[in-house]
Amino acid sequence: MSVLERSTTCPPPADVSCKRIGTEDTLHLRHSVLWPNEEISKVQLPEDETGYHFGAFVHAQGEPVAVVSLFREMVPGEETIDNAARFRKFACDPVCQGRGIGTLLLREVFRFASTELGARVIWCDARASAAGWYERRGLRKFENPFFKGAVEYVRMKGYVDELGV
């Protein structure tokens, strides 16, 4: 069920705000978008309590239309870079996809990672089907693709000074 189920349209990014939220505020959207046919535990992370969680909100709605979580985590294979951040469980309500809201939220996470955590590198495990979307936002593939169940993933990273943060 979409957060915006009563509406068939989603507002432009100008009508959306991004802010920090609690772990529990991410779970519904994570579950309904990323792994709807699995138990909710599939979208809960052991490290959620130490992460930074963000949501994009339509001003008239109380629930986020997009969510993402950020963690201090070194880039695999690049242990010499000690100031890295990893984002995970990025989900946007399908009604709002293609409107710039996910991009707006990701930019806020990049800004926070850089200014608040001092991260120089930001990385993620992206679904291979979404890799082009991340590339258009400045991230680049590294390492070989891998699978989580039947879903193919690729690791992607970006250097803060190249991401325009």
Q: Ranges with pLDDT <50 over ≥5 residues? A: 1-7
Rg calc: 15 Å
Structural class: alpha+beta
Major sheet size, sense and barrel closure: 7 strands, mixed
Mean pLDDT figure: 90
Summarize the structure.
With 165 residues, the protein is α+β, with helices and mostly antiparallel strands. The chain has helices at 24-34, 101-115, 131-135, 160-163, and strands at 16-21, 52-58, 66-72, 84-92, 121-127, 140-148, 151-159.
What would you note in describing this structure?
With 165 residues, this protein is an alpha+beta fold. The chain has 4 helices and 7 strands, in the order βαβββαβαββα. The protein has helices at residues 24-34, 101-115, 131-135, 160-163; strands spanning 16-21, 52-58, 66-72, 84-92, 121-127, 140-148, 151-159. The chain has a 7-stranded mixed sheet, sandwiched between helices. The protein is globular, with a radius of gyration of 15 Å. Residues 1-7 have low confidence and may be disordered.
